[in-house]
Amino acid sequence: MKRIAKQPNKKAAFTIIELLTVMSIIIILMGLLAPVTNRVRVYARRVSQKNQFHSINVALELFRAEFDGYPDSGALDGSTPAGGVSYCGAMKLAEAMVGQDFLGFHPDSRFRADGTDGSRNQLYYCTPPPPPPLDNLKARKEHYLPLEQANAYKLEDLYKPSNLGPFIAIKDRVVLCDVYKRVMNINTGKKVGMPILYYEANTSNTAHDMANPDNLQNIYDYKDNQALVGLGKPWNPPPTGPHHTLYSDQTKFYTSTWNEKVSAIARPYRADSFILISAGFDGEYGTPDDVFNFEEH
Questions:
Q1: How many alpha carbons fall within 13 Å on the CB side of residue 90?
Q2: Which of 26, 64, 193, 204 has the smallest number of Cβ neighbours within 10 A?
Q3: Do 187 and 157 form a contact (C-beta atoms < 8 A)?
Q4: 2 backbone dihedrals φ, ψ, rounded to 5°
Q5: Residue 72 pLDDT > 90, yes or no?
Q6: What distances in angstroms separate CA 188 from CA 94, 100, 156, 174, 235, one per listed residue?
Q7: How many angstroms separate the Cα of 57 from the Cα of each of 52, 66, 70, 165?
Q8: What sign for the dihedral angle of Cα 66, 69, 74, 78?
Q9: What are phi and psi of 200, to 5 degrees?
Q10: Residue 33 pLDDT grade (very low, low, confident, very high; cuts 50, 70, 90)
Q11: Burial of 110: CB neighbours in 10 Å, binned 0-12, 13-18, 19+
């Protein structure tokens, strides 16, 4: 009888060429999908930022209805004969929304860095003790922007003392931060956003001079937040790191906020109210990914 030869028990396996082919296909697919995924992430964050701006817009309208005007955004507070100390638009926005000490806005405020009403009356208690007296707390307004939604942080949470420049004496003052988590909170280690810049319109002016930022007739004044922008990026501040584009080129503020739909004369968006600016995904003010409160979704 003829014997049947035993077939060797070989296991099926991929050849090296097949493996390389599969790996190449996977790499190509990853290369194609990565930019799409990143664009989706950037778009989603931008929508989130505009939603935050919408909440601030609503809160500022509530403030205006109660006080017959929007919060001041001037870079100085007039507390000294020499012209005042640096207390910029971003800080005044935060004071209006949550108060200098997170306890709500005081109706007697004159938006002063020292937290007084311009006299000897202390309105805010940023460095306890002592705690605010009961009559002070009773006078406070409810937060126009709910504290848990405000993204409010002290300057000293975002910038190192060596980088606070003109704000070192008021390092415990508050700013509202955007939704882009680019900054490490110095005190907690958590990632938070960059300060939201706030500019109030001077409705008695008529210009939007994109060639001359220092035109005294400009409806908006870039200087309202220039000192804050001059601090640079908290993770890489000047002089070792680069300045924000918005700081180096003041015309950028006016070209970015120019309403191109108005052709007769140069006019800004929201010429009768206020402008909010987020530094966007890259954390740098003055670049194309900045987010404004006048943009549509």
A1: 27
A2: 204
A3: yes
A4: -80, 130
A5: yes
A6: 20, 20, 12, 16, 15
A7: 9, 14, 11, 30
A8: negative
A9: -90, 140
A10: confident
A11: middle
Percent of the chain topping pLDDT 90:
75
Which runs of consecutive H residues, i.e. helices, occur in 89-176?
Answer: 89-98, 134-139, 155-158
Distances (CA, A) of 67 to 71, 132, 138, 174, 278: 9, 23, 18, 21, 26
The Cα–Cα gap between 46 and 52 comes to 10
Domain spans of the chain?
A: 43-292
How far is C-alpha 46 from the chain's CA centre? 12
Q: Which residue has the tokens 């987020």?
A: 278
Give the span between the Cα atoms of 173 and 167, in whole angstroms: 9
The rounded distance, in Å, linking the Cα atoms of 162 and 165 is 7
Structure tokens at 137: 């707390």
Q: Residues 201-204: contacts with CB within 8 Å, 24+ apart?
A: 201/268, 201/270, 201/271, 201/272, 201/273, 201/274, 201/275, 203/271, 203/272
* Element holding 30 (H helix, E strand): helix 16-67
**pLDDT of 183 above 60:** yes
